[in-house]
Amino acid sequence: MSSDSPTFSLGKVRIIRVVEGLGLEIFTPVIRLLAGDDPKEQVKELARSVGVPLLSILAFLILWSNLAASVETRIGSLPGPAEVWTEAKGLVAEHYAERQKAVEFDQRMVVLKEKWEAEGRPWKNRVYSGKPTYFDQIWTSLKTVFAGFLVASLLAVPLGILCGLSRTMNAAFSPLIQIFKPVSPLAWLPIVMILVSALYTPEHPFFEKSFITSALTVSLCSLWPTLANTALGVASVNPDHMNVARVLRLPWQTRVFKIVVPSALPLIFTGLRLSLGVGWMVLIAAEMLAQNPGLGKFVWDMFQNGSSATLAQIMVAVFTIGIIGFMLDRLMVILQRAVSFEGTVSA
Amino acid sequence: MAAALLPTAPESEPARPLLELIGVSKSFCEGPNRTEVLSDLNLSVPEGEFLAIVGFSGSGKTTLINLIAGLERPDTGTIELDGRPITGPGPDRGVVFQNYALLPWLTVLGNVQLAVDAVFKGERARAREERAMSYVRMVGLGEAQWKYPNELSGGMRQRVSVARGLAMDPKILLLDEPLSALDALTRATLQSEIERIWAADRKTVVMITNDVDEAILLADRIIPLRPGPKASLGPSFEVPLSRPRDRSSINDDPEFKKIRNEIVHYLMDVSRQASEATSKRRVIKPTVKPLALRPRSLPTAR
Fold first, then answer.
1. Which residues 68-97 of B have a C-beta within 8 angstroms of A?
2. Which among B99, B104, B119 is the nearest to A341, CB-wise?
3. B58 and B133 housed in the same domain
4. What does pTM read for this prediction?
5. Which residues contact B68 (CB under 8 A, 6 or more apart)?
6. What is the tally of structural domains in chain B?
7. Which segments of chain A have a pLDDT < 50?
8. Taking CA atoms, what residue in A is nearest to B70?
9. ipTM metric
10. B294 part of a folded domain
11. Is B54 within the bounds of a domain?
């Protein structure tokens, strides 16, 4: 197929659209290079979108390692990139070691079970109770933030639609929203903790109290961006579209779900993206205080430990939190692009 | 004698007009800023007529369409469709908006289907989809049914808008400057399209336009809307040209030239009167003579 044929260009454009839809637009110049588009332009683009960030990361690492050696603290010198990397590897190794121990424990239990049952003694299943590894903690944090985010979205989106559609409702809720919006998670947490202790008392709790406390604190702090953006999106529906709905005499359900919500969807997703970002930040603080076994607790434990490896481990946590936050944001950008009908992301 | 024994045909009643406006006026804002946009409008549109209303920008044309469509209520007077006063918008008065008002998240078929689903609720899904497709094909977009509005040109978007307006099966179709957002060449193409589609089932149409030629090409009757404020309708101009009207040959038609001249002169007169009326409201200047112009004695020679 020659590179001049229309089928070829259409194929190239389609591949680029998919790649951009997946949030991997830094690879677009690579695809264009392979297709033979203006090489100088593509190389320049690659240099700018990939080369420059890599250089700046490298510069940052060099600067950091130079500064680190010159700062002394109560618990040792500030760790440089090398120490942090070593700690990271250590945490990963610890994770696999724990998993191995769990597997060995289960194997021992199987042998013991056969022996006891052969002797006629009653057998009770025992579960390996090792400490959670770093990856377990990451997973717990992710579960908690998504639980909180889900609760926040289920509250904020319908409320936002209501406030956007009705000026009266907006006026009714506005003062409460303005007062509760600036409250820090650290102020909500004790209240949530006390309430959860008092109200959540089932026989066999499916969720840990600390999990619920952290998730609810995340919800309380992260519902405001979604609420504000949803209300704005709904209130700014094109009046011509509403006129179409009026001429067709659409019932209110059709009006809301087929016209108002699709029209407001880009702004709703902007709000969701901001909410997830806020939620992830709030989560670490909430976990620290609620002792939810996630990254927040990891940082707190390491700090209490006060060992020589503490600072390095906390820095590993900092980078982990940052990188996961970045990936979550990218995920929301992909979702936002998927629902944007103008072909552009609004934030 | 024999003639007196023959039964005489009953005198047929004059057909009731489909749309009637009686003494309609509309103003905006209350108190000192109150502007009467439309004043004492009287209009009568028989069934099957293609009426064009030509007017100046800002004279209240869109307000007029909104009143007929029921999107706004008149301050005085009544608007009756088929003898019944209208109380609000409805699919019996289909509207084709100036800015198309297509829903960008629905495809071409989806946009037309929205109208069909709203009006023909009782029909089966298959029948409704067939109906929507027939209108999409009618406006020449049978190949583009899966495209989204942002993938269409202006002319194609307007066609979808027209298809949606027709798909509601309205009693009267209201076109609010449907072609003014397009370039001249696309406009010409779409004018022929509109005539072709209209000729198929001769719906009653009220079209607002600012182009006199377009009005003469498409309409049976043209009524100018005088410039505001307090705009009212001018006299009717009948367009007796036979259909179909060919754009290239019509330019040489003396009848066409005559009607065109009449309307353009009327519009120019009316516009001149309106600007004279506003210029009469001049500021009264005080009678003061500038110093330089006062009579002075000439300097005497020494």
1. 69, 71, 88-91, 93-95, 97
2. B104
3. no
4. 0.77
5. B19, B21, B79, B86, B93, B172, B174, B206
6. 2
7. 343-347
8. A247
9. 0.80
10. no
11. yes
- The tens digit of pLDDT for each residue in A263-296 reads 999 999 999 999 999 999 999 999 988 989 999 9
Instruction: Locate all alpha helices (DSSP H) within chain B, ordered by sequence.
Output: 2-5, 61-69, 108-119, 125-138, 154-167, 184-201, 212-218, 247-250, 254-280
- In a mutational test of the B interface, the residue from A247, A257, A269 whose CB has the highest number of chain B CBs within 10 Å is A247
Tell me whether residues A247 and B90 touch, CB distance under 8 A. Answer: yes
Chain segment B13-46, per-residue pLDDT in tens: 567 888 889 888 888 877 777 788 888 889 999 9
Question: Does B159 share its domain with B143?
Answer: yes
Residue by residue, DSSP assigns A55-67 as HHHHHHHHHHHHH
Rounded to 5°, the CA angle A208-A214-A219 comes to 125
Range B83-121 burial, b when 16+ CB lie within 10 A, else e: eeebeebbbbbbbbbbebbbbebbbbbbbbbbbbbbbbe
DSSP single-letter state for residue B231? B
Q: Are residues B190 and B264 in the same domain?
A: yes
Residues belonging to chain A with any Cβ–Cβ distance to chain B shorter than 8 Å: 238, 240-241, 243-244, 246-250, 254, 258-259, 262-263, 265, 341-343
Residue B238's domain spans which residues?
Answer: 16-25+34-92+170-275
Q: Which domain holds residue A27?
A: 6-70
Q: How many folded domains does chain A comprise?
A: 3
- Bridge partners (DSSP) of residue B76 are B25
Flag whether B134 is in a domain: yes
**pLDDT on residue A75:** 63
B122 and B227: one domain? Answer: no
